[in-house]
Design goal:
It contains 2 helices and 15 strands. The chain is mostly beta strands and 218 residues long. A hairpin with a 3-residue loop joins β5 and β6. The longest helix is centred in the first third of the chain and has 13 residues. The N and C termini lie far apart (71 Å). The structure holds 2-acetamido-2-deoxy-beta-D-glucopyranose (NAG) (4 copies). Keywords: Signal. GO terms for molecular function: metalloaminopeptidase activity; peptide binding; zinc ion binding.
Length: 218
């Protein structure tokens, strides 16, 4: 009986999420690699539905840091609740607001944040020879790439853009709808929106541009 209770508690803990935040879509931009801190910079606009009164927006996040240019806009009246504090905890990031937020739809913008590129085969990691950056977010590593509700039952639409070196190509879940060069060093690939997906099914890779390699070798 005690064991059953323990298992139930364990199950509840690992499968619970703040039910008052229902993500609708994520617009995500990742720029990589950033050699200064062996990682990437991210930018995110999360469109979500708040289903009950709350003074905080708490999202799953691990090893993400330096959150800057945060803003929240309430869709109904375009008001901007003022941010009181950002708390980075072990498994979450907590954005606290001066006043309680009423239920409804909101846009949370995180202008920029930093994350890490690892070398184990999880989250966003690096492979040498040929140099490759790729993701493996199953079962719960999406939170190492972007603040989210990282739960298999919570699905949303994702629009990804990747800023990557000009001698590489980027691939993701969906086809690229635009690729444009930003400067000598970087180009931007913009992908079509995904269907509704849990966060852990988001995937992308940045790899050497083999066409470019062939042209150079000829
Ligand atoms: C947002 O949440 C409210 C309350 O739970 C619900 O009535 C409404 O249908 C939801 N809207 C969307 C777009 O999910
Ligand atoms: C965040 O808001 C939820 C819903 O109002 C509440 O249950 C939770 O305790 C709050 N968390 C913190 C750290 O204030
Ligand atoms: C952040 O905000 C500052 C001041 O408003 C602005 O100069 C800067 O470009 C913004 N950065 C990002 C990444 O949005
Ligand atoms: C990756 O591996 C290198 C050695 O190959 C090590 O120095 C570095 O700490 C590792 N990085 C991470 C994030 O594990």
């Amino acid at each position: 009986m005690k064991l059953l209770l323990f298992l139930l508690l364990l199950f509840q803990n690992s499968f619970s999420w703040p039910h008052h935040i229902i993500p609708l879509s994520y617009d995500l931009l990742f720029k990589l690699p950033i050699h200064e801190f062996n990682g990437f910079t991210g930018s995110m606009v999360l469109h979500f539905n708040l289903s009950s009164l709350s003074d905080n927006i708490t999202l799953d996040a691990v090893d993400l840091h330096s959150f800057r240019n945060i803003s929240l806009i309430r869709s109904a009246d375009l008001t901007e609740p003022s941010l009181k504090s950002i708390k980075i905890l072990k498994e979450t990031v907590e954005f606290k607001f001066e006043k309680s937020l009423f239920p409804g739809q909101y846009l949370l913008t995180i202008g920029e944040y930093n994350g890490r590129i690892g070398n184990a085969s999880e989250a966003l990691f690096e492979r040498k020879k040929p140099l490759l950056y790729t993701t493996h977010l199953q079962p719960n590593h999406a939170r190492r790439l972007f603040p989210c509700i990282d739960h298999p039952a919570v699905k949303a639409l994702f629009r990804l853009s990747i800023v990557h070196p000009t001698d590489t190509v980027a691939q993701s879940n969906t086809i690229a709808m635009d690729v444009h060069v930003e400067n000598r060093k970087w180009q931007r690939t913009i992908f079509q929106a995904t269907p509704l997906l849990p966060a852990y099914l988001v995937a992308f890779s940045v790899m050497p541009d083999s066409n470019l390699q062939n042209r150079l070798e000829q």
